Amino acid sequence: MSKYLSLLFFFAFSFYATAQSNYILKGKVLNINNQLPLESATVYISTVKDSTILEYTLTDKNGNFNFAVKKNEKPVFLKVTYVGFETFAEEQKEINTNKDFNNIYLAESVNTLKEVTIKGEDPPIRIKNDTIEFKANLFKVRPDANVETLLKQLPGMEVDSDGKITANGKEVTQVLVNGKPFFDRDGAMALKNLPAEIINKVQVSDFKTKKEEYSKDQAASDNASINLTIDEDKNKGYFGKFLGGYGTDDRYESSFIVNFFNNNRKISLLGSSNNINAPGFSMDEVFDNMGGGRNNQGSTINRGQANGITTSNLLGINYSDELFKDFQTTASYDYSDRKTENVSSSKSVELRPDGNFYDTTSDSKTENRNTTNKANVELEYKISPTMRLFVSPRFNSSISENFSDSNRRSINTTDDIVTNAFTSESTNKNESNSFSNSINFNKSFEKKARNLSFVFNNNNNSSNSNGLVYSKTFRSQENDTIFRDQNTRNKGINDSYSAEIEFTEPVTDSIRFRIGMEYNFQNSINDNKTFDNTGTETDKIFTNLNDEQTTYITSKQRSITPKAGIRFEKNKFTFDLNSSTNIIQYDNYSDYLGEIIDLRRKYILPNSSAQIRYRADRSKFFTVRYNYNQSLPSASQLLPIQNVSNTLNTITGNPNLNPTEAHSANINYRNFDFRTRSGYNLYFRANYYNNDIIATSNFDENNIRRTSYENISGIYSFSGGGSWNKSIKKEENLLRYGLALNTSYSYSKEFTNNILYGAKSTGISPRIYLNYDYGQFFTIAPSYNFSYNETQYELSTLNSRSNVVHRLNLQTTSYWPTNWIWGNDFGYTYNSINQEFYLWNTSLSYTFLDKAFVAKVKIYDVLNQNQSITRNISSSAITDSENTVLRRYAMFSLTYKIQNFSGMKNPPGRRNRNMEGMDRGGERPEGFGGGRPGGPMD
Known about the structure:
The chain is mostly beta strands. Strand 17 and strand 18 (265-274) form a beta hairpin.
C-alpha cells in the first residue's frame, strides 16, 4: 500500500510543483473592421530565439482567451492566427507575472481565401470552417510511434484497443492519406503502420459521400473523417519494417511493410503470417501482432477471447498516383488465407409459455478455412472546374472450406426425459465471385448551390457450394432415428443495379430545393439440389435426387423512386426535409415438389426524413433526426414452401406478410472545448416498428420446431448515454481521463406454441478510464467497465434473467532506461455465469544498432487463465457458450527497420525529441519545454 501512496504523491507533487511557476495570460481577439469577436482564433507563445511553441489555446465565442504559461526569463512572442486574417505578433521580454492583453485586433488578409501564417511555424490547432487541423509534430509521440499513438495525443480524440476512433464524440469511419485511401478507407492499415514522424497535419471533418463532397453539401451522417497529410520533407523516399518471431507451442509471427513515396506516387507492400489470432497487420508498438496483446479498455469484451485459434497469411499492395493533371488513381490488391480451429460447447435453457423448460446441451468441433483475393480501384477525374467524375470498381473472389462435427441433446426438465438427440458430421466448399462498381458524376453551375449529380451502382455476385452431411436425429416419442447421408449442391446469383439523378436549385440564399429520381433493379436466383447416398458408407454414390430438399427460387424487384427535398439554412440553423415514394414490382417464384408458386405484387411505399442541426458555436452541436421507412419481407419469408434441411427445425414462409414500417429518432449533443481540452457528448435513440416480421415457433412432443413468420406491431427500443473526457498538460506530465455511460431498453415479442408474449430487456454499461504519461519515461492507464443486462417476461411462468460482467484493466509501459521498453497489460474479468479469471500479458524489448533493430521477448497470458464464456439472453432462451481461446505462450522476435527520406534533417536512428503540445529541440530554453526550431520570422 505504501508504494501506491508514494506513486500518487509523486503524481500530485509533479502537478503541484509545475502549477506554482505558471502565470495567466488573457485577452480578447477582435476583427479590426467591425469590432466583432473572432471565435476559435489560435493564440500561442513562441520563443524569439528559435520560434519554439511553448503553449497554446483557442478563443471562445466572445473572442476571449485565458491560459497558463510557465515562467520564462527570455524573450517570447505572443501570436494570434485566424483563417483569412494577418498574424498578430507582440514580443514580451519575459514572462514573470500575470498579464491582460485587453483587446487584440486582427486585420483581414488581402486574399481572404488564404491564411497568412509564418512558414515553418504553424499553430498547434487551426479551425478552417468545419475542419479541425492539428500540426502533428507539435504533439508528443515517442520515437518510432505509429499514427494511432499520435491520434491518442490530440485533444478530443479517442482510440480504443480495437482501433475504433472517435473525434469529439463522432465515430471516425474514414481515414485517408493525402486525400486517398491507404488499402481501405477504414484506415486500419494506416493507423498501425504509418510512422507518426512523417505526418505533417491531421485534418478532422464530417464524413461525406462522394456525392456530398462534390456538391459541397452538408454531411448527412453523424460520422467523422480524418485526412493525414504527409510532411513535404518525407514525401520522397522509403521506409519499412520487417519482423520475425518464434515461441513456445510452435507459435510464430512474421510481417513486413515497405513504403515508397515520390511526391504524388505512393507504393506500399505488406505481408503477414502468424498463428496467434492476429487478424492481419496490426503491429502494436509494444506487443506487435500478439492477438489480445492489449486488453480492451473500451468494452466488456476482451478481443483476446476470439473463438478458436486462427492461422492467417496476408499479402497486399497499394498504389496511388496522379497519372496526369487532375486525374487521381488509387489501386490495391489483398490476398488473405485464414484457417480457424475451434472446439465449443453450449448449454441453453429453452423457455416455453406453459412453464415447461428444456435443457439443451451441444458440443462441436469446427475447422474453417477462407482464401480471398480482393482488388479495389478508385479513379477520380476533375474534368473541369465545374465537373468531376469518380469511378470505383471492386473485385472479390473467395473459396471457403468448412468442417463440422457436432452433437446436440434436449431434455425436458419436468420429467428429465431426453426428447431428441442429434449428431452430425459435415463438410462444405463454397466458391464465390463478386464485382461491384460505383460511378459518381457531378456538375456545379455558376449560380451558387445549383448542382446536378448522377450516381450509378452495381453489385454482381455468384456462388457455388458443394457439401456433404451425415447426421442422425433421435425422436423419443416415436422412438426412431432419422438418418441422412447426403450431398448438397447450391448455385446462387445475386445482381443489383441502381441509378439516381438529382438536381438542386437555390431559391434564396437560405432555401434550396432538391428533386430527383432513382431506379433500382434486383434479381436473385437460388438453385439448391440435395442427393441421397445410394451406395455404401465406404463407397458413396450420390445420384438419387431428394425432392423434399430440392428447391429453385427466384426473386426480382424493380422500383422507381421519385424524390423531393427542401433545405432551410440560416446562420447557425439548418433544417432538412426529404420525402420519396418507392413504386415497386416485387416478383417471387419457386419450384418445389413439382408445384409452381408465382407471387407477383405491387407496392407503393412512402419514405420520409427530417433533420435539424443547430450550431451554438464552433464547439457546440445539437442534432435531431427522424426517419420513416418501409421494407419488404424476403423471398424465403414469403414463399409458402418447406425448408427441411434441418431435421430439428422445419421452416415455412407466409405469403400474407406485409411490409414493415420503421420509425426512428435520434438526438445528439456534442461540446468539446479546445481551450480547456475537455468535452462531452450526449445521445438518445428510439425505434418503433409496425408490422415487424418475427419468427413463430411451435414445438411438438419431441421438442422439434416448426417455424413460420408473422407481422407483429408494438415492438420498440430506446438507448441513451454519453461520455466526458479531459486532458491536462503540465510540462512533461500529461493526464487524460474520462467516463462514459450507455443504457438501453427494448420491448420485443415472441410467438411460441400459439402464445404471444412480450419481453423487456434492460442494459447499462458505465466505463471510467485514466491515462497518465510522464514524458518519455512511462505511461500508466487503468480502466474499469461494468455491464448489467436483464430480461423480464410478461408471463408469470417465466422468471427474469440477468447477467453481470466486471472488467478491470491496467496498462503500463516503461521507456526507461534508454533503448528499453517494458509493457504490461493486466486484466481481471468477473462474469456472473461462474467465470472469473486474470489475463496478464507482458513484453520487454531492446533497441540497438542505431535503433535499426529491436529484440523482444513477450509472454501472452502469463498466468494461463484466459477463458471465453459468454451468455446470451433472448425472449425465448438463455444460452451460455464456451469456446477455445489462445492460452499462454512466450515468443522471441526481431524487428529490422529501414528509412530514408530526401530532405531528412535527422538520419535514421537518431532519437526524435518532441513533447505533447510543443516540440523539444536540441537546445532547451530555460524554464520551458523546447521544440524543433521553426522557420525565421517575417
